[in-house]
Amino acid sequence: MAFEVSPLPYGYDALEPFIDAQTMNLHHDKHHVAYCTNLNAALEKKPELANWSLEDLMVKLNSVPESVQGVVRNHGGGHINHEFFWKVMAPAGTTSLSGKLKANIEGSFGSVEAFKEEFSKSAMGRFGSGWAWLVQQGSKLAVVSTANQDNPLTNGLKPLLGIDVWEHAYYLKYQNRRADYVSAWWSVVNWDEVAKNLG
Q1: How far is Cα 180 from Cα 191, in angstroms, rounded to an integer?
Q2: What is the pLDDT of residues 124-151, one digit of tens each?
Q3: Which fold has domain 99-198?
Q4: Residues 80, 51: contact at Cβ < 8 Å?
């Protein structure tokens, strides 16, 4: 069964002024669609993977046939990462950090501000293209960074929150000012979704 790109859970302009509508349109309708299209094309050659979910493909990446493993890693990763990314954002002011998630963040990092600082440093420190993630690592939460479209599931980690720091995610509005993009992005984090990911 072919994978499909989910529609955005909000309008292209819903994250303004922090993320502009033109970027959201290109990012979702061009970049994300290309990842999904290329993943499907690769999987057509391997019918034995037809019943694997996106999560299966990431968790069991080393079991994917070598002839398509690179495509699955890059384009399957691009697809699952973006399906996740759209959901962990929401229009500014519509969600808040509280309850179990806040307590877990404070327990793992000392404070919410310390967590945001570590996460932002991870996003800024990723050389080239990639992601920064808040992940569940056993009973604790941790911040990790991955290159390109790699997903934490491949390393046995459960992603709770992620920021895309590929240039296509911010360059139209912020040019080379990744720090400004990361700082603005905190205003559109969907804390309700992150709490659901924690479970």
Answers
A1: 20
A2: 999 999 999 999 988 899 999 999 999 9
A3: minor pseudopilin epsh fold (3.55.40)
A4: no
